[in-house]
Design goal:
Strand 1 and strand 2 form a beta hairpin. The protein folds into 3 domains: 71 residues, no CATH class; 445 residues, Up-down Bundle (Growth Hormone, Chain: A), CATH 1.20.1250; 53 residues, no CATH class. The strands form 3 sheets. The protein has a 3-stranded antiparallel β-sheet, with no helix packed on it. The protein has a two-stranded antiparallel ribbon with strand order 4-7. The chain has a two-stranded antiparallel ribbon with strand order 5-6. The protein is built from 23 helices and 7 strands. It starts with a helix and ends in a 5-residue tail after the last strand. It is mainly alpha-helical and 605 residues long.
Length: 605
């Protein structure tokens, strides 16, 4: 090898030099092969060459004798095949630094996930926290109770409508700043709600909250796809499910405690310090690269028409459902016209998206049976989950005559079983790389558990109630976010040419789940909204049933018990249909690499 290196360093001349040059070239190639094969400590680097695709590729042999490809392959960078590590990634010294940075990168990822899950928890909490405080809110701001339904519906409607906007904003401007914008809007809306002096201002604040929560909802899902591979994604999706389970259970109880002990306004003020903390954590630790964009191209490529149609059609349909909940007849001209307009919007949407340069809803999302089955099953799961999480506390308070805090304790069998199974199922999918059996078993168990709750009434034993809630939680847990995994896996290597497919499919998933939650509370379980106890609307009647004298108390309990029975029947039917939809979900390989063109930027030094 010494003679070999000596010959490379010499400068031959003339014909003899030419012969030496040819000989040296051959020896150089042989020397490189030998160095690689024998683990030589020689460092060899080639000059970067420029191809017709402006691709620069070099080869480094490090001190262990392994060859690695480096450079700035523009096409690979845009498609997300390699992370952005900076120019220092072409030396062994910086390779050692990267290895030393691994623990710090793990800590940084931990803080990123804390910030994401905290913001997700807050947006989930605000879906249910007002439930326990509504009697106090309506008594103070609107004695007639006419604004009761809008306090929840305004939040859900705004959250659903803005999802497509955040999807494209995150694509063009990056996930970090879009998420920070969403958290800021949610924070402002929380302050506005806490300071509200009328029902109008409170509903307006809930709209602002919903706009922020919609961004948080979709961007957290999308960021999980940016940060981890499909193979490992189940673990984090399971944690999101657990986060929602805890928020859904704690919300009504926490709202009732705030309203009874402090003030209902703290249902919203509690978001302020937590939102600020989430904002600061994301600001400090989430540093991501994304394909460079030019402002004029962004303005030109935004799918204005698609976003407008989705927002308008969604708003019209949800408003129609809201009016129906307030007593409007489905046969009225307003209901018919608005439903027709909403349906027409979604009918023409595919034709609009087919011609959009960057469609907000690519048609390829619905070109595979696994995606179709997963989307439908996820939508129905959201409908059922929302109904169980929202109305079970009402059953416990109105039928079992429990206080808000007592109902929170009674919800623990459902919450604990849901949380454990949701988290465990994610890890199980990542470990086994199989999901079909888990999905099918989950829907079957939840349908059976929900079917058994039909038998619950004011005379049911506590053991039966606990057993039925545990079974329902065991069934609902695995499928809270597991359906997103086959959606992503169904793309296979297609994301090499369309790296935003994961983000687009995730946004569609979040939109359908949000629609399911909204529809669940607005129309499917409408029987409870029609309950009227001596002129007192359901919003206030739930909290006073246990204090009514006989025979009014028994009559009220009977009315609520019958209405809840209808709710459980409808939930069972929804879960049964979801089970059938899940049967078309196919088996796909879970990819081991991250498929995104938005990557974490490694720490310097």
């Amino acid at each position: 090898m010494d003679s070999h290196n000596s010959k490379i360093g010499s400068q031959p001349s003339g014909a003899q030099g030419s012969n030496h040059l040819g000989s040296d070239a051959a020896q150089r190639q042989d020397g490189l092969s030998a160095a690689i094969a024998q683990g030589s400590k020689t460092t060899y680097s080639t000059m970067s060459t420029k191809t017709e695709h402006d691709t620069q590729v070099g080869t480094i042999v490090n001190t262990e004798g392994t060859a690695r490809e480096t450079g700035a392959d523009l096409k690979s960078h845009v498609s997300g095949d390699i992370p952005v590590l900076g120019a220092h990634s072409t030396s062994d010294r910086c390779d050692n630094k990267a290895q030393k940075r691994l623990p710090r990168s793990s800590v940084r990822l931990f803080f990123i996930l804390v910030g994401m899950f905290l913001s997700q928890f807050l947006s989930a909490l605000d879906q249910t926290i007002v439930t326990g405080a509504l009697p106090h809110i309506t008594a103070e701001l609107d004695s007639s109770g006419s604004g009761y339904t809008w306090v929840g519906s305004a939040f859900a409607l705004a959250q659903t409508v803005v999802l497509p906007i955040y999807t494209q904003a995150g694509t063009f401007f990056g996930r970090k700043w879009t998420l920070l914008c969403a958290i800021s809007i949610f924070l402002f809306g929380s302050i506005l709600c806490g300071c509200a002096d009328s029902m109008t201002v409170l509903v307006a604040g809930r709209v602002v909250q919903g706009v922020g929560a919609g961004g948080i909802l979709t961007l957290v899902y999308i960021l999980i796809g940016d940060l981890v591979s499909t193979k490992d994604r189940g673990k984090y999706q399971g944690l999101i499910g657990a986060t929602w389970a805890v928020a859904s259970a704690v919300g009504p109880v926490l709202g009732g405690i705030f309203a009874d002990k402090v003030s209902w306004r703290w249902c919203f003020f509690i978001n302020v310090p937590a939102s600020v903390l989430a904002f600061l954590v994301i600001m400090m630790f989430l540093h991501m690269s994304h394909p460079p964009v030019e402002l004029y191209k962004v303005i030109r490529n935004v799918d204005y028409l698609g976003i407008t149609i989705i927002a308008a059609a969604t708003t019209v349909i949800l408003l129609t459902l809201q009016w129906a909940q307030q007593g409007a007849l489905w046969s009225s001209s307003r209901q018919i016209v608005f439903l027709a307009l909403g349906g027409l919007g979604f009918v023409i949407l595919p034709f609009i998206e087919a011609t959009a340069p960057v469609p907000v809803v690519p048609l390829s999302l619905f070109s595979h049976r696994t995606r179709i089955g997963s989307y439908l099953a996820s939508f129905l799961h959201a409908v059922a989950y929302s109904g169980i999480a929202y109305y079970t506390p009402l059953y416990l308070q109105a039928v079992r005559c429990q206080t808000a805090s007592e109902s929170g304790v009674s919800m623990l069998p459902l919450v604990i079983s849901f949380t454990i199974v949701s988290t465990a199922s994610g890890y199980l999918i990542s470990w086994t790389r199989k999901y079909q059996g888990l999905i099918w078993t989950g829907f079957a168990l939840s349908a059976v558990g929900s079917g058994l709750t039909i038998m619950l009434n004011q005379t049911s034993s506590n053991i039966a109630q606990i057993a039925f809630l545990i079974l329902t939680g065991l069934g609902l847990g695995p499928n809270f976010n597991s359906m997103l995994i086959p959606i992503h896996a169904s793309f296979g290597d297609e994301t090499e040419s369309a790296p935003e497919a994961i983000a687009s499919s995730t946004a569609a998933y979040a939109f359908l789940r949000s629609m399911g939650i909204s529809i669940s509370s607005m129309v499917l379980f409408n029987g409870l909204a029609n309950i009227d106890i001596n002129g007192v609307p359901m919003s206030q009647a739930v909290g006073i049933v246990r204090d009514l004298p006989e025979p009014q108390r028994s009559l009220a309990v009977s009315l609520f018990s019958e209405a809840m029975r209808d709710v459980h029947i409808q939930i069972t039917v929804v879960l049964a249909v979801a089970f059938l939809a899940s049967l078309v979900v196919g088996k796909h390989e879970l990819q081991s690499k991250v498929q995104s063109n938005h990557r974490l930027i490694e720490d310097e030094a």
